Amino acid sequence: MRLRRRGRAAIPFPARADAVTVSVPGGDTMPARVLECDPESALTVAILVPTRPFGQRELDGLVVEYGSSRGRVHLTGSTVGVSPAEPDVVAFTAPLSVEIIQERDFVRVSSARPVLVYMGNSREKIQSFTVDLSGGGLLLAGPDTLQIGERVEFRLSVSQDVPPITGAGRVVRIDSKGRRGVSFTDISDGDRRRLVRYIFDVQRAERRRGLRAEGSNG
User: Fold this and answer.
1) d(Cα 113, Cα 84) in Å, to the nearest integer?
2) CA 102, CA 73: separation in Å to the nearest integer?
3) Model pLDDT, residue 45
4) Within a 10 A sphere around the Cβ of 98, how many other Cβ atoms?
5) Half-sphere exposure (CA, 13 Å, Cβ side) for 171?
6) Which residue, 58, 75, 196, 201, is most buried by CB atoms nearer than 10 A?
7) Domain range spanning residue 132?
8) CATH number at residue 131
9) Which residues contact residue 55 at a Cβ distance below 8 angstroms, ignoring those fewer than 6 apart?
């Protein structure tokens, strides 16, 4: 479910130093961090990877994305470069247009499945496993070197009899146990459907176990 809101009062804003993602026209994404946030005037962010100066058309198409208690927020506005000497710093002024993606619409289940994680430009390969899964992302047991905003590719095995589910995502949170929450940024419709079917199978199996446990106590 997607809810669209207009008006500053409806927007849940990030805080200073929060990790966010900046999307450029064409679909590329870059990790960033909030420098200043004033809901009445502007959201200023610093992009954390090297970038060239943006043209005005590119600035107009920038979108900042971040997590909130209500879901993933996609924020736009009148975007300006703060200084030609600092092309990595941009300000979203008069932020009036927002899209909130309700991530909770995806059912999440606990499931420990092997997953191969490819990290960064070097595509360093690390074997890990999932803690839980949903149609919108997964919680990884590791590696502990992954940082918020980092992009990863993955190969998730849900069964020995079928090809792995593949895609890409970005680390959006690190919980108190050091586990990494990854939100999908690139996954095919077919692989997402396969993942959702697997999640439903896990739910059905859990319900059957629950019914058997109730029956044995009766």
Assistant:
1) 47
2) 9
3) 93
4) 22
5) 23
6) 75
7) 106-209
8) 2.40.10.220
9) none
